[in-house]
Amino acid sequence: MPVYRQGVTEGALSILPVDNHHGCGQLGAREIAATVLDPEMPMLTLADLGVLREVSERDGVVTVTITPTYSGCPALHEMRVDLKERLLDAGYERVEIRIVLAPAWTTDWISAEGRRKLEEHGIAPPQRGAGPVTLNLVPPSAAVRCPRCGSRDTTELSRFSSTACKALRRCEACREPFEHVKEI
């Protein structure tokens, strides 16, 4: 009965196998769940995004635990449906999807591969957390690098873009607009 739990490697969330007794060439439940794409950013898998927290198989039941990017995430329903369908299609007969809100998801959980894919698709990945944050009423202003030309001379055009977790920015050097996944 393999169980996969979150593990943190160099600040990024990774799902680590605790036990794996699958035959050669056979994909396990964790490997299958890790291929499900995020409905809002389909260049990323749920594993890339860091929302896939745990996958376990016990007594014929596969339990997948996910943490949405935020509690009101409109893609949560689609994530649940896609995970369940993918595992049922792979031959697992009983699948449960658990939603866990604590600890809350953070952009630090986006994998290095996920960050690379975001940039490859013209979306500026979020910066990693810098440690203790002074609490005040104004968020710290951090330079966001343009995913096209690399300039840090960028301007936020809108706090919200195609999804609530992204902002719309423009590079002042190349004048190209781009989306930026906001740090949470």
TrEMBL record:
Residues 139-182 form the PaaD zinc beta ribbon domain. SUPFAM superfamilies: Fe-S cluster assembly (FSCA) domain-like. Coiled coil: none annotated. InterPro entries: Fe-S_Maturation_MIP18, FSCA_dom_sf, MIP18-like, PaaD-like, Zn_ribbon_PaaD. Residues 35-88 form the MIP18 family-like domain. Pfam families: FeS_assembly_P, Zn_ribbon_PaaD. Signal peptide: none annotated. This is Ring-1,2-phenylacetyl-CoA epoxidase subunit PaaD. It comes from Actinophytocola oryzae.
